[in-house]
Amino acid sequence: MCARTQSLRYRWFRWLNAAAYVPFGAGLMLLLLLLLPPTPVDAGCRRLVQKPCEAICVRTGSINRHIVRQEFEVRGNGSTGPYGARDGWTCELRIVVIMPANTSVEASLPRVQPVLEKAEGAIRRDGIIPADVAIRWIPFDDRCEQARATVMAMDGTGSDSCGHLILGPSCDFALAPVARIARYIYNDGIPVITGAGYTFDFEEPKTHCENEFHMLIRTGLVSFKRMAFFMIELIRHFNWNRVVYFYERQSYYNVAGPQTGHLLMNTMAEFFRHENITYSPFSTDSARTNLTESLKEKVGLSHASEYYRHVKPQSATARER
Ligand SMILES: *[C@@H]1O[C@H](CO)[C@@H](O)[C@H](O)[C@H]1NC(C)=O
Ligand SMILES: *[C@@H]1O[C@H](CO)[C@@H](O)[C@H](O)[C@H]1NC(C)=O
Ligand SMILES: *[C@@H]1O[C@H](CO)[C@@H](O)[C@H](O)[C@H]1NC(C)=O
Ligand SMILES: *[C@@H]1O[C@H](CO)[C@@H](O)[C@H](O)[C@H]1NC(C)=O
């Protein structure tokens, strides 16, 4: 009994000793935190009066009937999930989905909506958000157009829909204006979450209001910058330093909508420049003659080089048989 108290006392003493080593600054910080009242967090890029509908939970008496009725007309089905009502409060998370309806683009409404339904199922099953918070999807077809996407973002965040979050747009050209204005919508800005945004501008830092795409969150793994780095590795490996870049301006419409080929070329050009690689872009739709001729003309003698083949003819033919 006596031994145990002693060891306890000893431990207590050791702890005190260790505590003495805790940097003085930390203690001071704690004191300051206790003395100063917490300052309100100011996340927005411009100060605005908060609209009542911006809140996820509102008193049931004040629920905006107009919103509910309009949505029934849009979706035919009304809101999904249990309609949240808790002790006189109604909670609803409104998610604006801006995507083309044209299935030529991979991330189009008809293809993505079933995935969102699955996602909602998972959210409900795992209880990621409280069960009494309803989720409402508000789809808009932007046809991959800049102007349409911008107006849809305004509509989706106007007092009729009052969305809390924007999913999409999935075309890079339509994404740019939406991601640009998102920081000035509402007092705190509205998050824009997209799997697209392949062009290098979307990968620039976004931590401050001054950053162009401050409210954008890219979830995709692929970007044109990564592809450019792959190309640069390849070019370095072979010790090349001149590139003729043949590209189709409108190719890969399914990936990022209009001018995907052009955007990829832009990104590559940007990083080729950083690496001092001389490049000469050539858009095939500007070709005056057929491609074979264009290739001869562009590559010509200024970009071609000699190379030696070390192939044993016998073994090559033997392998083919
Ligand atoms: C409406 O919802 C039901 C189930 O809740 C579903 O079976 C039906 O396909 C939906 N209709 C439309 C048009 O989305
Ligand atoms: C979808 O987009 C492709 C490519 O731009 C176009 O050829 C096609 O006509 C569009 N389809 C519809 C239904 O608008
Ligand atoms: C490119 O060239 C500039 C000036 O000649 C040089 O300062 C820079 O280090 C070079 N960059 C690379 C990646 O070689
Ligand atoms: C391209 O043009 C050249 C002559 O200008 C011609 O010999 C060649 O057959 C053409 N190729 C094709 C695929 O039309």
UniProtKB/TrEMBL annotation:
Record GO terms (molecular function): peptide hormone binding; signaling receptor activity
Record organism: Anopheles dirus
Protein name per the record: Receptor ligand binding region domain-containing protein
UniProt xrefs under SUPFAM superfamilies: Periplasmic binding protein-like I
Signal peptide: 1-43
Keyword tRNA-binding part of the UniProt annotation: no
InterPro entries per record: ANF_lig-bd_rcpt, ANP_Clearance_Receptor, Peripla_BP_I
Chief location bin: membrane
Gene Ontology BP terms: signal transduction
Subcellular localization, as worded in the UniProt entry: Membrane
Domain Receptor ligand binding region, first and last residues per copy: 123-252
Gene Ontology CC entries for this record: membrane
Keywords noted in UniProt: Membrane, Signal, Transmembrane, Transmembrane helix
